[in-house]
Amino acid sequence: MSFVHLDTDAADQAMTGIEAAAAVFGNAWTALAGQITANESGIGAGLLAQAFRAKYRPEPVRTAADQLPVAYRDSAAVGRQCVLDYVTADRTGAGAFGG
Predict the structure, then answer these.
(1) Helices 58-96 and 8-39, axial angle in degrees (round to 10)
(2) Which percentage of the chain shows pLDDT scores above 70?
(3) Helical ranges in 1-99 per DSSP H
(4) How many Cβ atoms sit within 10 Å of the Cβ of residue 72?
(5) Pairwise CA distance, residues 30 & 18, whole Å
(6) Does 87 score more than 80 pLDDT?
(7) How many CB atoms lie within 10 A of CB 69?
(8) Mapping DSSP to helix (H, G, I), strand (E, B) and coil, where does residue 98 land?
(9) Residue range 44-55: average pLDDT?
(10) SS (H, E, C) 36-49
(11) How confident is the prediction for the chain on average, in pLDDT?
């Protein structure tokens, strides 16, 4: 017979890592997004620049990048709640057996 148990400490560490990655990305993106926008004027207006600008679509990337830190923080919060739910269910189950 096989039993599955959640390593709650490892799960908590994983959620902390996800939150840290969200913060690192968010801080870097905040700094770089302004630089990218500021440097767009340097693309120029020549033939190569015109061809580039015809296909250049920064807004979908900006929108997605803006949302990533929040999405990862939210995912970590859900992960933490799952751990709490697991612990609660485990204790409830153990209590049913008198443990």
Answers:
(1) 170
(2) 96
(3) 8-39, 47-55, 58-96
(4) 18
(5) 18
(6) yes
(7) 20
(8) coil
(9) 94
(10) HHHHHHHHCCCHHH
(11) 93
Contact 87, 15 (CB under 8 A): no
- Measure the CA–CA gap between 95 and 32, rounded to whole angstroms: 53
Q: Which two tokens stand for residue 56?
A: 């250049």
Domain spans of the chain? 58-94
Structure tokens belonging to residue 10: 């490892």
pLDDT at 7 > cutoff 90: yes
Per-residue tokens: 46: 């020549």
Find out whether 29 and 65 touch, Cβ atoms under 8 Å.
yes
- Dihedral (CA of 49, 50, 51, 57) sign: positive
Cα 94 versus chain centre, distance: 34
pLDDT of residue 1: 46
Task: Give the torsion sign (CA, 90, 91, 96, 99).
Answer: positive
pTM of the model as a whole: 0.77
